[in-house]
Amino acid sequence: MKKQVLAFIGLISFIMILIGCSSQQSEDNKGYVIQGRIMEVKEDEILVANVIPRDVALNYTTNEVLGDDTIQPIYLKVPDSSVTYKKGQLVKAWLKKGESVKYTVPAKGNAEEIQVIKEGN
């Protein structure tokens, strides 16, 4: 009886570990996460800058952002061209896993997914 209880507990523990690993694996399909405000919108990419309040995002020019050492802008290749992005929106973006960021000024990367967290206006 004692062996059966221990075997049952072991089986349940094993199943819980498998479930935990499989749910974590689906989350790991995306790479590095970036959150910031959209500073510029182009046809197939957006310029996202961290630590930017909404009013600053709407009033700064791209050149001012690039000249500020405290701001870390990155051009993100948009994964879905049917989505319309606007200057000032707060977004969260996941970079494609396994792809590196091009360390230019500003940096460039390919987004796996972009989620609008808050509208700009």
Question: Can you characterise this structure?
Answer:
This protein has 121 residues and is of the alpha+beta class. The protein has a single domain (30-118), classed as Nucleic acid-binding proteins (OB fold (Dihydrolipoamide Acetyltransferase, E2P), Beta Barrel). The protein contains 3 helices and 5 strands. The protein has helices at 2-27, 54-59, 62-67, and strands spanning 30-41, 45-49, 73-77, 90-96, 107-118. The chain has a 5-stranded mixed β-barrel with strand order 1-2-3-5-4. A hairpin with a 3-residue loop joins strand 1 (30-41) and strand 2. The relative contact order is 0.20.
Walk me through the topology.
Blueprint: H1 2-27, E1 30-41, E2 45-49, H2 54-59, H3 62-67, E3 73-77, E4 90-96, E5 107-118
